């Protein structure tokens, strides 16, 4: 029998207590305050009309969305991914994917095609690492003064980039998204509304006229996305069922673990929201 000093036992108990507090904080980062409706018919008339499928969008424009990619398309996607990025839990990096030989690249493409065909991703790709970084002010040992960075598996991110490269041009060329969607599509930018606002401010200064500006900063925007409402939005755009199922396979049954000063915590279930760090999520 091995006896450990009391100080070591207390240290382990303290580490466990810290881990649990860290998990509690990030698991309940955004409280679930209401039960989402089961269908758009349960919404008020105003919102049921807003989420109704768009009559001007043809289902035929998405016919090729879930087609299997060619090796050239997959290789081009891999080549476009950035270097020197932190990997996910498996520690596989983009650089590793870029240096795969022909046989390994072909096998990986088969896996990617299977994911699109089944409209699903691997369970391991729903696991992620949370790395809390400090906000630009005194953190005072308060977890609320940190910002979580989500480290996802890079193969999953490359697959989502491939899907985005197929979806975004369809949405743009057929004008599916309209109005205030400035930055989610290829060629889109927030520059125009910013320039417009700057011109209005400049005019107010020059003419010495009062100007009132209302700005809304949505705290924890990605973390507070309700999946039921997201499904309504995707159905509104008339995305095929397989495409919606594929996107939701990224969000369902997710688990994270958190990097702390004494190592990673145990995994915990993610209760709400979508992961930041995917190229497609600003579009969603």
UniProtKB/TrEMBL annotation:
InterPro entries: DNA/RNA_pol_sf. It comes from the Eukaryota. This is Uncharacterized protein.
């Amino acid at each position: 029998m091995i006896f450990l000093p009391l100080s070591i036992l207390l240290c382990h108990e303290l580490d466990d207590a810290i881990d649990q507090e860290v998990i509690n904080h990030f698991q309940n980062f955004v409280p679930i305050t209401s039960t989402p409706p089961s269908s758009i018919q349960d919404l008020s008339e105003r919102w049921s009309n807003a989420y109704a499928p768009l009559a001007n969008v043809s289902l035929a424009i998405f016919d090729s969305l879930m087609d299997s990619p060619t090796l050239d398309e997959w290789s081009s996607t891999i080549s476009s991914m950035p270097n020197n990025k932190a990997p996910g839990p498996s520690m596989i990096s983009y650089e590793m994917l870029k240096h795969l030989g022909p046989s390994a690249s072909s096998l990986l493409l088969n896996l990617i095609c299977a994911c699109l065909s089944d409209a699903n991703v691997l369970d391991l790709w729903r696991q992620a690492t949370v790395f809390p970084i400090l906000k630009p002010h005194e953190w005072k040992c308060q977890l609320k003064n940190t910002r979580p960075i989500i480290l996802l598996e890079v193969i999953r991110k490359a697959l989502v980039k491939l899907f985005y490269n197929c979806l975004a041009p369809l949405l743009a060329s057929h004008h599916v998204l309209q109005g205030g969607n400035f930055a989610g599509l290829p060629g889109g930018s927030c520059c125009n509304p910013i320039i417009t606002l700057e011109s209005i401010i400049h005019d107010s200064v020059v003419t010495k006229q009062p100007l009132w500006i209302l700005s809304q900063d949505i705290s924890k925007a990605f973390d507070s996305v309700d999946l039921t409402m997201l499904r309504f939005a995707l159905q509104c755009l008339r995305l095929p069922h397989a495409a919606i199922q594929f996107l939701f396979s990224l969000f369902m049954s997710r688990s994270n673990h958190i990097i702390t000063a004494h190592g990673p915590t145990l995994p915990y279930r993610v209760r709400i929201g979508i992961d930041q760090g995917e190229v497609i999520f600003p579009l969603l």
